[in-house]
Amino acid sequence: MTRGKQKIEAQRKNADKNQKSKGSQLEARALGLKIICSICKVQLANEKQLVDHYGSKHPKEKPPSNSS
What we know:
The protein has 68 residues and is mainly alpha-helical. Helix content is 53%, strand content 6%. Strand 1 (35-36) and strand 2 (43-44) form a beta hairpin.
């Protein structure tokens, strides 16, 4: 069992390690979402999701070309 200075250093080291491992899922999600629907402004990850989105949410509209 550690005492004194070793205990404090171990606690600080563990706190630093735990703090670095946590990341925001919202930040990672924002980086992954690159394509935006021009009608309802929903962010999508890729072209296939955009085509599926247009098919279900905007059936009367045609999906934009690859240069969205």
